[in-house]
Amino acid sequence: MDRSRNEKPGENQGEGNRTAAREFNRAQEEFAKSGKVEEAARSAERALDTKEAKELKRAEELGRRHSHGEDPAVKR
Hints:
53% of the residues lie in helices and 0% in strands. It is an all-alpha fold. The protein has a domain at 16-67.
Protein backbone atom coordinates (compact mmCIF):
# COMPACT_ATOMS: atom_id res chain seq x y z
CA MET A 1 0.00 0.00 0.00
CA ASP A 2 1.39 3.44 -0.94
CA ARG A 3 0.94 5.37 2.30
CA SER A 4 1.84 8.68 0.64
CA ARG A 5 -1.56 8.64 -1.09
CA ASN A 6 -3.24 8.50 2.30
CA GLU A 7 -1.28 11.39 3.78
CA LYS A 8 -3.32 14.48 4.46
CA PRO A 9 -1.75 17.96 4.36
CA GLY A 10 -0.79 19.07 7.86
CA GLU A 11 -1.24 15.58 9.27
CA ASN A 12 1.30 14.72 11.97
CA GLN A 13 3.24 11.79 10.57
CA GLY A 14 5.49 11.42 13.59
CA GLU A 15 9.09 10.36 13.23
CA GLY A 16 10.03 9.55 9.66
CA ASN A 17 7.83 12.24 8.09
CA ARG A 18 7.78 11.21 4.43
CA THR A 19 6.27 14.48 3.21
CA ALA A 20 8.97 16.55 4.89
CA ALA A 21 11.65 14.18 3.58
CA ARG A 22 10.39 14.53 0.00
CA GLU A 23 10.26 18.32 0.29
CA PHE A 24 13.77 18.44 1.78
CA ASN A 25 15.18 16.15 -0.91
CA ARG A 26 13.53 18.19 -3.67
CA ALA A 27 14.90 21.45 -2.26
CA GLN A 28 18.41 19.98 -1.91
CA GLU A 29 18.36 18.70 -5.47
CA GLU A 30 17.19 22.08 -6.77
CA PHE A 31 19.95 23.84 -4.83
CA ALA A 32 22.60 21.43 -6.13
CA LYS A 33 21.45 22.04 -9.71
CA SER A 34 21.21 25.83 -9.22
CA GLY A 35 24.94 26.39 -9.60
CA LYS A 36 25.06 28.24 -6.27
CA VAL A 37 26.86 25.56 -4.26
CA GLU A 38 30.37 26.97 -4.74
CA GLU A 39 29.15 30.47 -3.92
CA ALA A 40 27.52 29.23 -0.71
CA ALA A 41 30.66 27.30 0.25
CA ARG A 42 32.83 30.42 -0.21
CA SER A 43 30.36 32.46 1.83
CA ALA A 44 30.45 29.89 4.63
CA GLU A 45 34.23 29.87 4.58
CA ARG A 46 34.32 33.67 4.84
CA ALA A 47 31.94 33.51 7.82
CA LEU A 48 34.63 31.61 9.71
CA ASP A 49 36.74 34.79 9.62
CA THR A 50 34.08 36.95 11.26
CA LYS A 51 32.88 37.58 14.78
CA GLU A 52 30.25 34.86 14.36
CA ALA A 53 32.95 32.17 13.94
CA LYS A 54 32.78 31.17 17.62
CA GLU A 55 29.01 30.67 17.37
CA LEU A 56 29.40 28.63 14.17
CA LYS A 57 32.01 26.38 15.77
CA ARG A 58 29.77 25.87 18.81
CA ALA A 59 26.85 24.91 16.54
CA GLU A 60 29.06 22.48 14.64
CA GLU A 61 30.20 20.81 17.86
CA LEU A 62 26.61 20.54 19.08
CA GLY A 63 25.64 18.91 15.79
CA ARG A 64 28.54 16.47 16.02
CA ARG A 65 27.41 15.36 19.49
CA HIS A 66 24.10 14.25 17.96
CA SER A 67 25.78 12.58 15.00
CA HIS A 68 26.17 8.87 14.41
CA GLY A 69 29.47 9.55 12.68
CA GLU A 70 30.64 10.63 9.27
CA ASP A 71 28.98 8.98 6.28
CA PRO A 72 31.67 6.79 4.68
CA ALA A 73 30.43 7.91 1.25
CA VAL A 74 31.58 11.46 2.03
CA LYS A 75 35.24 10.38 2.10
CA ARG A 76 35.22 8.75 -1.34
